[in-house]
From TrEMBL:
Subcellular locations according to the entry: Membrane
Stated name of the protein: Amino acid transporter transmembrane domain-containing protein
Region called Disordered, residue ranges: 1-50
Keywords, alphabetical: Amino-acid transport, Membrane, Transmembrane, Transmembrane helix, Transport
Length: 525
């Protein structure tokens, strides 16, 4: 017979408020076995109604000695706290996403900030150069509140079915759309948002390291500087070293660093831009193209860039799964608190960088975004120290973001290994998987160096994960009253998301073909 993973025996806690049962994970951390669930909606809240613990009353306990009284009180708290034990796969205790369930609202804020702000925000002014002031601001505002609503949906659906926690986006898609259709619909966009974003981060991080070195060194640099590919390799090596942290909770510190650096460099980018004199030939009229079709596809591509700015929904369930959840303290409460704080700061970064960047450069905005504009227009106006610090913060943010976006890929590798061997990954196996993933991402980046320029196309292809699928999943799992406002609202939003996905993808393909894949975040030397 197959060996079964050993777990610790469930014990009655020694405190009045009991915690969930635990098991010992491979990294030595304790992971609660009980997740969150829901009581039956028909359960009475009348204090006089009988419950399994109603016999443990002060009057009943009064003649009993102190030790027995303490045991019974603890048992009462335990039964009330864990009266709805969630069925978890024991294999989850071996996987990096669900290995540790000690997260909290602070960790949720750090992770969501790190996942939600990144290099994609730097190209928002490029979208404005094709949309103009009015449509640029309207599109960004609608996209922000739309994705905030779908984020709330995902947080609520994490424990939508009593006794079940959906720890990964694909799991929730399978529950809503069916086993096969859920995989077909959700697997590609979530894999790209994990592996593809990791590859794009290597490109952006490596190129930023090269620019940082050029700014700091200046003419004193050696006659044989590192090539762009060699800088990619340096950045990849740093990512692999940091990726040895075992699980999602263990990178909370890195996510905090990523969040702080993202907020700082986004603020510095637009503040430095608006504080300098604007180019004399600046114009705020949308870029005009020779034909109507060309203008239409450019607008669609610009809206795809805005859609690509709002990433991170593929990690929402994974972040929430790192939190303990009980009937009295469900995981969605701290998760939503952390998410609200995170997206407040995300708004404070995205709107100023889009508006300030477009105000500073107008239609002259380079296709690479804000950093390219700073380097092209103000390399001699801004103190080298400030410019170098901005680029260094981008490097730190890319290193931190690589870890959280790679975690689903690490989780998939280890899930395949543990399902075949029925044992957790050793340190060497886990390290091997992460080294393999890092260098595969590096080779993809070298083979497809234009990947970072496909923001419009990739925004269209991955848009359903953020804007469409959550609305469909809400209707299919929560089953609101047919033809009610809730029912119509989510169906309409979902199908609008699918239509925009197709339109933005077409616009991205048109832009990619007509620009010959030459768009880059930085112009290579």
């Amino acid at each position: 017979m197959e060996e079964r993973p050993e777990t610790e025996l469930i014990s009655i806690p020694a405190t009045p408020r009991a915690s969930t049962p635990e098991i010992l994970t491979p990294s030595g951390q304790r992971s609660p076995r009980g997740g969150g669930g829901h009581t039956s909606t028909g359960a009475s809240k009348d204090a006089k109604s009988w419950t399994p613990t109603s016999f443990i009353s002060p009057r009943f306990l009064s003649p009993i000695g102190t030790p027995m009284k303490r045991v019974l009180v603890n048992m009462k708290g335990y039964l009330e706290e864990v009266g709805h034990l969630t069925k978890l796969n024991p294999q989850d205790a071996w996987l990096p996403i669900t290995e540790s369930r000690n997260g909290n609202a602070h960790y949720a804020a750090f992770h969501n900030l790190n996942a939600g702000i990144g290099f994609q925000a730097l190209v928002l002014p490029v979208a404005f150069s094709y949309l103009g002031w009015s449509w640029g601001i309207i599109s960004l505002t609608i996209a922000y509140f739309w994705q905030l609503y779908t984020l709330w949906i995902l947080v609520q659906l994490h424990e939508a079915v009593p006794g079940k926690r959906y720890n990964r986006y694909v799991e929730l898609a399978q529950a809503a759309f069916g086993e096969r259709l859920g995989v077909w619909l959700a697997l590609f966009p979530t894999v790209y948002l994990s592996a593809g974003t990791a590859t794009a981060l290597i490109l952006v991080g490596g190129e930023t390291m090269k620019l940082f070195f050029q700014i700091v060194c200046g003419p004193l640099c050696s006659s044989n500087p590192l090539t762009t590919v060699e800088w990619y390799l340096v950045f990849t090596s740093l990512c692999i070293v940091l990726s040895q942290l075992p699980n999602l909770n263990s990178i909370a510190g890195l996510s905090l660093v990523g969040a702080v650096t993202a907020i700082t460099y986004a603020t510095m980018a637009w503040v430095l831009s608006v504080s300098q004199p604007r180019p004399p030939s600046i114009s705020y009229e949308p870029i005009s193209l020779p034909s109507y079709s060309a203008s239409l596809f450019s607008v669609l591509n610009a809206m795809g860039i805005i859609a690509f700015t709002f990433r991170g929904h593929n990690l929402v369930l994974e972040i929430q799964s790192t939190m303990p959840s009980t009937f009295k303290h469900p995981a969605h409460v701290p998760m939503w608190k952390g998410a609200k704080v995170a997206y407040f700061f995300i708004a404070l970064c995205l709107f100023p960088i889009a508006i300030g960047g477009f105000w500073a450069y107008g239609s002259l905005m380079p296709s690479g975004g804000m950093l390219s504009a700073l380097y092209a227009f103000h390399i001699h106006d801004i103190p080298r120290g400030l410019l170098a610090m901005t680029f260094l913060l981008v490097v730190f943010n890319c290193l931190s973001s690589f870890q959280i976006y790679s975690m689903p890929a690490f989780d998939s590798f280890e899930a395949g290994y543990t399902s075949r061997t029925n044992k957790p990954c050793s340190i060497w196996v886990r390290s091997g998987f992460r080294i393999f993933f890092g260098f595969v991402s590096f080779f993809i980046g070298v083979a497809l160096p234009f990947l970072s320029s496909l923001a419009g196309l990739l925004g269209g292809l991955t848009l359903p994960v953020t804007f469409a699928y959550p609305c469909f999943m809400w209707v299919l799992i929560k089953k609101p009253t047919k033809y009610s406002f809730n029912w119509y609202f989510n169906w309409i939003l979902g199908w609008l998301g699918v239509a925009f996905s197709l339109a933005f993808s077409i616009g991205g393909i048109w832009s990619m073909v007509n620009n010959g894949l030459k768009l880059r975040f930085f112009k290579p030397n």
